[in-house]
């Protein structure tokens, strides 16, 4: 089922995307075709978000709680290629700064689909469920109507390098996939932070911020656009529309 994204009755829209550097073609010049499926799905979700609003709110995971304002600029230089990104289409004199990967990807996606700005709220990687819910409830009152949620699933799937796979990864990400498909915020809140940490599922805290926000409204519907672990890491792309 394809969900509508342009309707007077739509009061909120959120998309969940992964944040691997491989989304940026310039960073994977020898593997652009191999990485196309997840990139195409992520860009499709971002375009749908831009149809709802050109001003985005994003949630990503960082070392600590922080707010990154739209006048910020950065670069993927630390990932091998100097690909500049900006969180706003408006000219700014701010000097580029080192930014977490989630912020860089949010800015890159904004540019690719022509959104005007994105404000990024970082949640601490090890934030507990209650902290994530509180932040989500606070963000529910934000002026922006379009929410971008960034984070990867487990890095320990069977396609990971030898010695790294964990048999629990498949079930873990299958549960996340189902929760995203059904817009089941309670199922996302039930994700165990300790297990997520063991499985290196860095997106856990960001997903639970989304769940905290979703609890403040009713009528959410979900759609999964992509869910796979082609390089040992689970990437989920989903869209939630609320009424």
TrEMBL record:
Gene3D superfamilies: LigB-like
Residues annotated as domain Extradiol ring-cleavage dioxygenase class III enzyme subunit B: 127-237
Pfam family, one: LigB
Signal sequence range: none
GO MF, one annotated term: ferrous iron binding
SUPFAM superfamilies per record: LigB-like (SSF53213)
InterPro entries linked to this entry: Xdiol_dOase_suB
Protein name per UniProt: Extradiol ring-cleavage dioxygenase class III enzyme subunit B domain-containing protein
């Amino acid at each position: 089922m394809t969900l509508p994204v342009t309707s007077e009755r739509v009061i909120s829209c959120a998309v969940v995307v992964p944040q691997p550097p491989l989304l940026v073609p310039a960073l994977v010049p020898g593997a652009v075709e191999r990485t196309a499926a997840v990139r195409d799905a992520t860009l499709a979700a971002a375009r749908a978000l831009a149809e709802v609003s050109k001003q985005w709110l994003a949630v990503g995971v960082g070392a600590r709680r922080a707010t990154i304002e739209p006048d910020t600029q950065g670069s993927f230089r630390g990932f091998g290629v100097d690909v500049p990104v900006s969180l706003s289409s408006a000219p700014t004199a701010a000097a580029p700064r080192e930014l977490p990967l989630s912020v860089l990807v949010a800015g890159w996606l904004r540019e690719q689909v022509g959104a005007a700005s994105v404000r990024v709220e970082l949640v601490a990687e090890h934030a507990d469920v209650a902290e994530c819910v509180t932040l989500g409830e606070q963000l529910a009152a934000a002026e922006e109507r379009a929410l971008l949620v960034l984070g990867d699933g487990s890095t320990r799937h069977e396609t990971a390098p030898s010695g790294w796979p964990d048999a629990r990864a498949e079930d873990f990400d299958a549960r996340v996939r189902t929760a995203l498909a059904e817009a089941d915020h309670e199922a996302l809140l039930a994700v165990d932070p300790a297990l997520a940490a063991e499985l290196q599922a860095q997106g856990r805290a960001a997903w639970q911020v989304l769940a905290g926000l979703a609890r403040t409204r009713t009528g959410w519907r979900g759609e999964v656009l992509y869910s796979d672990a082609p390089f040992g890491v689970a990437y989920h792309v989903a869209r939630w529309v609320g009424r």
